[in-house]
Every structure is written in C-alpha cells, then in structure tokens.
C-alpha cells in the first residue's frame, strides 16, 4: 500500500478526472483550481506558543478570501477588471483576515466574485465562472462563487465571502457546503468593499461543521461554552412548499432529526408568510404596488423585492460616480438594474428601513433566545451554465426570496448540505435570532450527523416505496395487456405491455407477452427482438424460446428457429408445440 499522502493525491486526481470527463460535454476545460482563484498569495500565521500554552485555535487550517477583502500589497479587484486597473493596492489587510491569520490559519489566495459582488448566479465574464465541483454543468452561485468552490473542491479548509442578499448562502447551497451568515453588524466590515450597507455581512464557508464553528468563535470573539439545546424548532411549511420534488424528503429529514434529538414537543409548524403579514405592518405600504403585472404577491417575494430595491439604491450611492467616470464593462445583471430609476424619496427609504426593523423584531419574537427556524436554503436547484434565465428579473427574485428573510431581519443563518436530489445539491438552512450566532453554530454541530442519517433514511424509504409502486403499476398494465390479448385487440395489448416494460424493464414476461402480440400482427422482427430481451433476462423462459423460434421461422432463419425449438424441449421435454415445430423443420430442412 502507498503512503496516506500518495493515496490522497490519487483520490484527488480521480476526482478531478471525473470532473474533466463530465465537463468535456460542456466544451469547457476545468482548471486545476476549478477557476476559484484570481490570485495566489501566502499569509502565514505566527509561530505557535510553546507548551503548556494551548495552540492557536485555527492551527493547521488553510483559507481563501473573496476578492472584496483588502490584503496589504494586493489590489482588491471586486470581480471587475476595470476596477482593478483603476485602483491601487491595499495599504493594510482587512482586520477580519488578520484575525484569522493571528488565529493560526494560513491564507492561500483570493477568489472570484460576481462582477462588483452584485449578482447571485456566480457567473463572471471577466474571470470566467468557477466550476461547481458538486454539479459541473450548473452555476456555482454568487456573489462569493470562488470561495464556495475552493471549499467544495477541497482546495482550502474554509473561506471568507461577502453576503449581501445571499452571497454566501446561495453558493453554499449550490455547491453543497456549509455557509454561515452571522448577525448583521457582529463582524467588522473594515477593509471590505461595500455593496449595500444595510445588508453587507462577512460570511464563511466550510465542509465540516466543526471547522465552521472554530472559525466562528474567532470572528465572533465568543468563548466556548456548554451547548444549549433548542427549546423550539419552527418548520416553515410554506417555505418548504416552494421546493419541487425534494420538498417532502427535506422537511421529513428535519422533522425526524428534531424528534430523535430533542423530542416531538420541540417541533412547531408555521406558515411564515401569514406570520410576517401580521407582524410586519410596514409591508402594507408595498402590497398595493404592482409587481411584474400582479397586484398582489407573496409576502416572501415582496420582501425580496424590497430588499433588492434598497440594495440597488445603496449600491448606486457607493459606486455610481466611479461607473459614470470610468464607464467600465459591466455584467448585464448590473447594467440593466442600474438603468432603472433609483431616485427614491426619503419616505420610501424610511419604509424599507421600517420593514427591516419590524422583520428583526418579528423573527426575534418568533425564535426568542432558544429557538431555531428551518427553511430551504434556496427554492430551486442551481441554473444551468450559460442559461439566459440568470439574467432575468424573475430569476433574481426567485433566487433571493428565501435569503431575504435573514437579509431583511439581520438575523444569523447557516446553510447545511443535505445530499443530492436529481444530481444537484440539496441544502436546508437554520436561522436564529439576531445575536444568537454561537447558539446557532452549536446547534448545527449537534444536529448535522442526525440530519445526514435521517436524510439517507428518508431517501431510501422513498426509493423503496417508488420501486414497489412501480412494480405494482407494471403488473396492472400487464394484466390489462393480457385482457386486451384475449379480446384479440393486439395493438391495444402492445400499448399496455409497453407501459409495463417502461415501469419495470427487468421482467421477462412483459417482453415475451408483447412478442406474442407482435406475432399476431405479423411484426416478426419486433417479436424476435422482444423474445431475445426476455431470454436475456430469464434463460429458462420457454414461451420466449417458442415465440422467437416462430418469429425466426417466419423470417426464414430456419436453423436458428430449430435451435430455439430444441432448447425449449430441453427445458420442457414434454412440450408438444416445441416437439412438433422442431420435427416439422427437421423434415423440411433435413
């Protein structure tokens, strides 16, 4: 056996090879770093303290930072080449980055963000779009796309991103990793390029809840304590109903995990839209306005609209002067939105801030000090690469509907990977009140193993039920085919047998029965093919040999037909039809 290090490189090589094979269909070469990095650099931690002092809390870990964080001597590129060309290198490193290095971690580089960290799809035409390791044909999510990809591809242990309207949570969901957005205002934004002050929050990614928690304790500057169990876990049923095929699986995994860990009495189901309608009165100022031609919209969609309007307004306040003077090449997602009339009256801005304040009060009241809200991280799987859908206003709203709950309230949220559905990552999110960051990190650490276990059980149960259901349906279709055959309705019988085969393609009888109907119609080639399929599945299917022998005889394959009849006799020595057919062919072709 090779060394552990050699084996690791083999595994990494195989993983990369798999990605390369998959992306050949996309005609896109995958870079060794999956396109995650815009710059490689090295910030090394101080030497560890001598024993008996404890080592630094992040000793041995590596991390990357999104290209919105200042690093001394490096230009902060903001995901835009024109921005990089027109700005000087940073004179000092962001305090957040410095805290992590001082905590024992090594910074290895800067990662790609959406153009000016504005989008949510993760696509960037200036630096190319990082490859999503979990779903190479899909977008990685943004704005902190490269940071999520670097973690998902095991290039670093954790990474930093910026979350404005979902910039950490969306790529975490799309790439199948953990993504933590702390309470708004709890982590310093110094040395971080702004997008929208009302929402900007430093967040981080990890593949492991323990590392996620270790990073959190350094950045949040909170001590380790005995974890507190949640006394209330609220499942937002209306939010889970936004999902399609994975809704039951995901919500069941949450419910079963809570019951196993904390007891059924902790569970509570809530229609979050109805709750917020009653607790956020300032929403009424927006509900009368038309949205996309509709007079009324769901509360959560309305929140996303308000959030995005305020984000655009604040973004323009920060960067409009530079955009007008430099006239940079911008992603259409930005340019289209900046062309809209963003001259908001003071009263409108106050209304947006009122909704934000009331949202915080509403969620803090719902969750109190020891409550958790469970929702899906995103309402849809990641879009396909190059899809025009990501440019549409409707996609931008759908992608941020669920993230708006925390962006608008300032509460803390963690995106938790929960396996795959239809080859795309599935992610749920747990939310705690504003200031409940340590409680939330402790809770995800406690719950994650059981969440994984329950998700696997639910998936296997569902697969088993589907298999049983399909087999039952296939048998019903076969019986209908048999009745049609008895009624001499050959074509109708073929339709039913075909349906049975689609439901269960491993049943030899279905092919053999359809062959019998084909023989009655004189479709001998189809009959021979069906009998061959039946024999491949069941080498002792006498009827299939007899029917294939008949089809071959009618097609003029007399030698092969004789062999089929003789083999049927081997299986059933007293079968008169086989004996008569074999004898007839022997006399005709001695």
UniProtKB/TrEMBL annotation:
Residues 56-441 form the Amidase domain. TPR repeats lie at residues 542-575. It comes from the Eukaryota. Gene3D superfamilies: Amidase signature (AS) domain (3.90.1300.10), Tetratricopeptide repeat domain (1.25.40.10). InterPro entries: Amidase_dom (IPR023631), AS_sf (IPR036928), TPR-like_helical_dom_sf (IPR011990), TPR_rpt (IPR019734). Keywords: Membrane, TPR repeat, Transmembrane, Transmembrane helix. The keyword Transcription regulation does not apply. The chain crosses the membrane at residues 6-23. This is Translocon at the outer membrane of chloroplasts 64-like. It comes from Coffea arabica.
């Amino acid at each position: 056996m090779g060394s552990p290090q050699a084996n690791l490189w083999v595994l990494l090589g195989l993983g990369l090879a798999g990605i390369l094979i998959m992306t050949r269909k996309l005609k896109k070469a995958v870079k060794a770093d999956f396109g995650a990095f815009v710059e490689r650099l090295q910030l090394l931690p101080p030497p560890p303290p001598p024993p008996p002092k404890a080592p630094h809390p992040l000793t041995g870990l590596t991390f990357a930072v999104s290209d919105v964080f200042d690093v001394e001597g490096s230009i902060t590129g903001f995901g835009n080449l024109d921005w990089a060309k027109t700005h000087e290198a940073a004179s000092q490193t962001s305090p957040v980055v410095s805290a992590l290095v001082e905590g024992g971690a090594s910074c290895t580089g800067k990662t790609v963000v959406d153009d000016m960290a504005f989008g949510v799809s993760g696509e960037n035409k200036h630096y190319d779009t990082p490859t999503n390791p979990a779903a190479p044909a899909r977008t990685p999510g943004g704005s902190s796309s490269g940071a999520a990809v670097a973690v998902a591809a095991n290039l670093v242990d954790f990474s930093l991103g910026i979350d404005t309207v979902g910039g950490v949570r969306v790529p975490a969901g799309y790439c199948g990793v953990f993504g933590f957005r702390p309470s708004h205002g709890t982590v310093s934004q110094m040395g971080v390029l702004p997008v929208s002050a009302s929402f900007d929050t430093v967040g981080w990614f990890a593949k492991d809840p323990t590392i996620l928690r270790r990073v959190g304790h350094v950045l949040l500057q909170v001590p380790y304590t005995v974890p507190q169990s949640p006394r209330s876990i609220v499942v937002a049923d209306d939010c889970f109903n936004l999902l399609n095929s994975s809704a039951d699986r995901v919500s069941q995994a949450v419910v079963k995990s809570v019951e196993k860990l904390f007891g059924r009495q902790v569970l509570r189901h809530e229609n979050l839209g109805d709750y917020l309608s009653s607790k956020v009165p300032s929403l009424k100022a927006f509900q009368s306005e038309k949205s996309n031609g509709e007079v009324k919209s769901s509360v959560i969609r309305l929140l996303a609209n308000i959030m995005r309007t305020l984000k655009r307004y604040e973004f323009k306040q920060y960067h409009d002067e530079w955009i007008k003077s430099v006239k940079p090449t911008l992603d259409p997602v930005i340019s289209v939105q900046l062309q809209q009339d963003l001259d908001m009256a003071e009263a409108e801005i106050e209304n947006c801030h009122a909704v934000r304040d009331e949202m915080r009060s509403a969620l803090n009241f719902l969750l109190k000090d020891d409550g958790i809200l469970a929702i899906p991280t995103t309402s849809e799987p990641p879009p396909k690469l190059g899809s025009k859908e990501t440019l549409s206003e409707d996609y931008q709203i759908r992608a941020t509907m669920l993230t708006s709950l925390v962006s608008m309230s300032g509460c803390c949220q963690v995106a938790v990977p929960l396996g795959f559905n239809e080859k795309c990552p599935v992610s749920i999110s747990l939310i705690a009140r504003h200031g409940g960051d340590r409680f939330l990190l402790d809770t995800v650490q406690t719950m994650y193993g059981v969440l994984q276990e329950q998700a696997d059980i639910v998936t296997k149960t569902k697969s088993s039920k589907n298999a049983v259901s399909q087999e039952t349906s296939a048998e019903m279709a076969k019986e209908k085919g048999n009745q049609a055959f008895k009624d001499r309705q050959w074509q109708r019988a073929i339709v039913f047998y075909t349906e049975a085969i689609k439901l269960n393609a491993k049943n030899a009888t279905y092919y053999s029965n359809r062959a019998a109907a084909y023989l009655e119609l004189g479709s001998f080639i189809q009959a021979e093919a069906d009998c061959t399929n039946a024999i491949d599945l069941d080498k002792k299917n006498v009827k299939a040999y007899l029917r294939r022998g008949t089809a071959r005889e009618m097609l003029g394959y007399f030698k092969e037909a004789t062999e089929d009849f003789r083999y049927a006799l081997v299986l059933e020595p007293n079968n008169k039809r086989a004996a008569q057919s074999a004898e007839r062919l022997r006399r005709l072709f001695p």
